[in-house]
Task: inverse folding
C-alpha cells in the first residue's frame, strides 16, 4: 500500500510542478502530438464500416491508439486489453488451431479477437502488436455488421493495422527484460514511387516466463503491406501477416471443487494450505506447441463519385498447430494426507482451420442543407470456414505427483513422445467441418436535423453447413437462415459536446442438430438469439480533450442448448433447447487530457449475468466488478521535453469459475517511464510491481505474470 501512495503522490506532485512552471510558447504543436499519443482516438470508420464520430454513435465502443502501447512499453495485444473498461482476460493463448487465441469476457460473454480492418482475421496464438495502429472494441451484440461466425454477444475486437505512407521513415528497436526476454523490431516505410507505397513491420521475441525462465519461447511476426494509388479515385491494398510461435504452455488447472480439495474453495488457500507452487510449471523440458497463423488481404477502394465509395475485400486466414498441451488437476488424497497433482496432455497433431472471405461494401454519404445528412453502407459477404482439427490425448493421466517439493522434470518431450509412439497409449478426436456463409446487410445513419442521429440496420445471413464429424459422431448437414436487426438514436443535448443515446442490437448463432434423447434422435435447433437494449450518455468536452461514456445495458440470449447430463451410445451429449442467459450491467469509461501534459484513461464496469435455467452465474461470465486506470504525464517543453511517466492498474472482484470455486479478487499495478526525442526513444516498465499472485480462467485456473521488467531503446529515422 505504501508503494501505491508514494507513486500517486509523486505523479501528482510532478504534474502540479510542471503545470506551475509551464510556458505555452511554441509548444502547441508538440502538445497536440503528445495528446494523440496519450489519449485514445474515439472516432471510428472500419468497425462501423462507415465514418462515425464518437458523439453521434449510438454504439458503445473503446479504442486504444498505438501511442498508448508505446508509452506503456506494450508489445502484445493481450497486454493492451488492460486499458479497456469492462474487458477481462480469462485464458492465456494456447496456440491451438481454431480456438487457441486468448479468451476474454465482455458483458458476461466469452470471446476472442477475430477481425482485422473490419474483415475476418482470427489469430489463434499470441498477437504481436508491431503492426497495430489502433485496437477497437465494440460492446454488445454486433451481428448486424459481422454475422454469427465472428462476434460474441458481449462484443468484438477489431485490429486496425498500420498503412504505407507517402514519406520515407522508420524505426528499429531492441528490448530486454527479466525471464530472459529479448526482442527486436523494425517498422520501415519505404515508398517505391509516389503512387506505389511499401511498409514492413517485423518483430522477433525470445522469452521465458515466471514458471520456466529457460523456456525460450519464440514469437516471430512478419507483416509487409503494399498500397498502389492506381488513380485519384482507385486504391489497391495488399497485406500479409505471418505469426509463427513456438511456446511452452502455462499451467492450467481443471476440475477445481471444494468436494475434492478437502473443503478449499479458492486459489489463495490452495497455495497456502495445499502448498501449490505459483511459480512452478509442473513440467520438464521442451513441451512446445508450434502455432502458425498466415493471413493474406486484398482491398480495392474506388471513389465512384463524391458521394459513393466501393470497397472490395478478399482475404484468407489460415491457422495451424502441432505440439504438446499439458494440463493438470489437483485433489486431496486422504490416504496420504496430501494434495496431489494429476498431469495429463492433449496435443494437437497437424491441426488446421481456415477462413476465406469475399466482402463488397458500398458507402453512400450525402450532406444536405440545414444540417441534414445521411450515411449508408450496403454490403455483401461470402465466407468459407474449413476445419481439419486433430486432438491427440493420452488414455490415462501421465502421472500423479505431490503438489509441493517434488521433481517435476519427468513430464518432458522425450517421455511424452515415447508414449505417443505406441498407439495403445493414446486416442485421437478429429473435427472435420465445412461451412459456407452468405450474407447481405445494410446500416444507415440519418441526421434529419443537426443534433439528432437515427441509426437502423438489418442483416440477412444463410449458413450452409456441409456436414462433418466430431470424433466418432457424424454431424448432419443443414441450411439455416436468420435476420439480425439493429437500431439506435442519439440526441446531442449540446452539439458536439454532450449527447444521450439508446440502442437495440442483435446477434445470433446456428447450433445445427443436437441429440434430443439417449436413443440419439437428432433435431435441428432454432437459431440462438441475443438481444441488447442499452442507454446512456456521452461527453466530448474541452476541444475533445475529455471524452466519457456511461451506459446501462440488458442482454437476453434465448434458444440456447442445455445439457441434460445424459449421453447417447456414441457419447454424444443429450441436449434440449431450453436455456437462456440474462446479462445486465453498467459501464463508465473516461478518457481525459485536461491539464497540460497530464492524461487519464480509466473506467468502472459492473456485470450481473444469470443462467436462467439454473439461476446461477455462468462460470464463463468473469468477475462482477472490473476497474482500470492509467495516469500519465509527459513534459511538453523545457529542458526535459519528451520525458514521461505512467502509473496504472486493474482491479477484478472474485471470479467463480466452477460454481463453487473462486479465483480471488486482484489489484495489479504497473508503472512506466520514457523519453521520446526526435531520433530516439527510451522506455522502461515494471508490470505487476507489487508481485501480486492472481489467477484468471473460466472453468480453469491459470496463474498470471509476477513482477516483470522490460527496457526498450528505439532509433527513429
Result:
Amino acid at each position: 500500500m505504501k508503494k501505491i501512495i508514494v507513486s500517486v503522490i509523486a505523479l501528482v506532485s510532478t504534474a502540479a510542478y510542471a503545470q506551475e512552471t509551464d510556458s505555452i510558447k511554441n509548444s502547441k504543436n508538440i502538445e497536440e502530438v503528445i495528446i494523440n499519443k496519450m489519449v485514445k482516438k474515439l472516432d471510428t470508420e472500419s468497425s462501423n464500416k462507415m465514418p462515425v464520430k464518437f458523439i453521434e454513435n449510438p454504439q458503445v465502443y473503446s479504442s486504444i491508439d498505438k501511442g498508448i502501447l508505446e508509452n506503456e512499453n506494450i508489445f502484445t495485444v493481450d497486454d493492451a486489453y488492460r486499458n479497456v473498461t469492462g474487458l477481462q482476460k480469462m485464458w492465456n493463448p494456447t496456440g491451438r488451431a481454431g480456438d487457441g487465441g486468448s479468451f476474454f469476457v465482455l458483458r458476461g460473454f466469452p470471446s476472442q479477437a477475430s477481425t482485422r480492418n473490419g474483415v475476418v482475421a482470427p489469430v489463434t496464438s499470441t498477437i504481436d502488436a508491431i503492426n497495430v495502429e489502433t485496437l477497437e472494441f465494440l460492446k454488445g451484440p454486433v451481428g448486424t455488421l459481422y454475422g454469427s461466425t465472428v462476434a460474441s454477444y458481449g462484443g468484438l475486437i477489431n485490429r486496425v493495422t498500420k498503412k504505407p505512407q507517402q514519406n520515407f521513415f522508420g524505426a528499429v528497436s531492441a528490448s530486454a527484460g527479466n525471464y530472459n526476454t529479448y526482442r527486436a523490431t523494425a517498422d520501415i516505410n519505404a515508398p517505391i514511387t509516389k503512387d506505389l507505397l511499401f511498409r514492413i513491420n517485423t518483430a522477433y521475441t525470445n522469452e521465458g516466463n515466471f514458471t520456466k525462465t529457460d523456456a525460450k519461447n519464440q514469437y516471430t511476426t512478419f507483416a509487409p503491406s503494399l498500397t498502389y494509388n492506381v488513380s485519384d479515385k482507385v486504391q489497391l491494398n495488399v497485406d500479409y501477416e505471418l505469426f509463427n510461435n513456438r511456446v511452452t504452455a502455462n499451467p492450467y488447472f481443471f476440475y477445481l471443487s471444494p468436494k475434492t480439495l478437502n473443503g478449499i474453495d479458492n486459489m489463495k488457500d490452495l497455495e497456502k494450505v495445499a502448498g501449490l507452487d505459483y511459480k512452478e510449471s509442473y513440467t520438464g523440458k521442451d513441451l512446445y506447441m508450434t502455432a502458425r497463423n498466415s493471413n493474406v488481404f486484398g482491398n480495392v477502394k474506388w471513389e465512384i463519385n463524391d458521394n459513393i465509395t466501393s470497397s472490395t475485400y478478399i482475404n484468407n486466414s489460415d491457422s495451424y498447430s502441432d505440439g504438446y498441451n499439458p494440463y493438470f488437476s489437483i485433489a486431496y488424497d486422504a490416504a496420504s494426507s496430501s494434495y496431489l497433482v494429476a498431469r495429463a496432455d492433449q496435443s494437437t497433431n497437424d491441426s488446421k482451420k481456415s477462413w476465406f472471405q469475399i466482402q463488397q461494401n458500398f458507402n453512400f454519404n450525402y450532406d444536405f442543407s440545414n444540417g441534414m445528412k445521411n450515411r449508408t453502407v450496403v454490403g455483401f459477404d461470402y465466407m468459407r470456414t474449413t476445419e481439419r482439427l486433430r486432438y491427440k490425448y493420452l488414455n490415462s493421466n501421465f502421472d500423479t505427483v505431490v503438489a509441493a517439493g517434488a521433481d517435476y522434470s519427468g513430464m518432458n518431450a522425450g517421455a511424452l513422445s515415447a508414449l505417443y509412439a505406441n498407439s495403445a497409449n493414446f486416442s485421437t478426436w478429429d473435427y472435420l467441418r465445412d461451412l459456407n456463409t452468405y450474407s447481405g446487410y445494410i446500416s444507415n445513419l440519418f441526421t434529419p436535423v443537426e443534433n439528432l442521429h437515427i441509426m437502423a440496420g438489418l442483416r440477412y445471413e444463410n449458413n450452409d453447413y456441409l456436414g462433418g464429424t466430431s470424433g466418432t459422431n457424424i454431424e448432419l448437414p443443414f441450411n439455416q437462415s436468420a435476420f439480425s436487426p439493429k437500431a439506435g438514436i442519439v440526441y446531442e443535448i449540446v452539439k458536439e459536446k454532450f449527447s444521450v443515446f439508446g440502442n437495440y442490437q442483435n446477434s445470433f448463432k446456428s447450433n445445427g442438430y443436437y441429440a434430443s434423447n439417449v436413443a440419439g434422435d437428432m433435431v435441428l435447433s432454432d437459431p440462438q438469439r441475443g438481444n441488447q437494449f442499452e442507454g446512456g450518455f456521452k461527453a466530448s468536452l474541452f476541444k475533445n480533450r475529455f471524452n466519457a461514456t456511461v451506459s446501462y445495458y440488458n442482454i437476453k440470449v434465448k434458444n440456447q442448448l442445455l445439457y441434460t447430463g445424459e449421453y447417447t451410445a456414441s457419447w454424444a451429449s443429450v441436449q434440449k433447447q431450453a436455456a437462456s442467459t440474462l446479462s445486465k450491467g453498467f459501464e463508465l469509461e473516461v478518457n481525459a487530457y485536461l491539464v497540460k501534459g497530464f492524461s487519464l484513461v480509466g473506467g468502472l464496469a459492473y456485470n450481473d449475468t444469470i443462467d436462467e435455467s439454473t439461476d446461477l452465474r455462468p462460470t464463463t461470465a468473469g468477475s462482477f466488478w472490473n476497474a482500470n486506470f492509467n495516469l500519465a504525464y509527459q513534459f511538453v517543453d523545457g529542458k526535459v521535453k519528451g520525458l514521461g511517466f505512467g502509473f496504472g492498474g486493474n482491479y477484478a472482484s472474485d471470479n467463480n469459475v466452477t460454481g463453487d470455486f473462486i479465483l480471488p479478487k486482484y489489484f495489479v499495478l504497473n508503472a512506466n517511464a520514457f523519453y521520446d526525442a526526435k531520433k530516439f526513444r527510451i522506455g522502461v516498465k515494471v508490470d505487476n510491481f507489487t508481485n501480486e499472485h492472481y489467477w484468471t480462467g473460466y472453468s480453469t485456473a491459470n496463474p498470471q505474470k509476477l513482477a516483470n521488467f522490460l527496457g526498450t531503446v528505439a532509433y527513429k529515422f
Q: What stands out?
A: The first strand starts at residue 61 and ends at 65. Helices lie at 2-21, 28-38, 66-71, 77-80, 143-146, 267-274, 413-420. Residues 79 and 564 are 38 Å apart (CA to CA).
